[in-house]
Every structure is written in C-alpha cells, then in structure tokens.
Amino acid sequence: MPPALKGLKKYESVDEMNNERKKRDNEAQKIRYWRKRYGFDLTNEDYELFNQNINIIKKIYPIYDLIINFDKNKVNGDNLDEYAKNWDKIKLGLEIKDYLLTLKKITNKHILVF
Description:
This protein is mainly alpha-helical.
C-alpha cells in the first residue's frame, strides 16, 4: 500500500515526508487535547495563536468567564472578593483579552434525557 501522502505533494525523500506527517499529526493531537481539556472550538488555523498563548490560557481557563466579563468600572461588592483572589490571573487574561474574545466555547449538543 503506498503512503497516504503519495501523489499529493512532491517530497525530496521519504524522511521529509515522514517529518511533515509527524508535524501535522503532532498539531492535530494538540488541538484535540486542547479542545477536550479547555473546551474551546479550535481548528488548524487557530493552532499558532493558541500555542503562543497556551501558558496564559492554562492559568486563566477556570476564570475565563470572569475575565471576559471584567469591567474595572463596574466592580461591585458581590464580585470584589473573587476579583481580589484572582487578580494576578485576571491581569494576565486582560493582556490577551482580544484573543480570548475570538475563542468559541464548545457547547454540549448531545444531552441525554431520560
């Protein structure tokens, strides 16, 4: 059976073809892991930006909604304690808030009803 990539792109050698396949498989595996772990709807086009910001996203994903809805002019007493506990993470998240707004959360479409 010929290799899966045979005929799609001309490679100089089998090693080059295998390296390209490893790179593509590695990216696909990371995207699958990130989708499952962090709950964002990611595509292959999102890989580079998400990979650049993964260190911040790891820290802030538990308070993602808090960062998205954060407005320093509308901090009230109800949320003040939560803001105070997570201020360092909120500050990190505000640095990439524009990117965070572009991410889409995965919603459960398949809810079982008994």
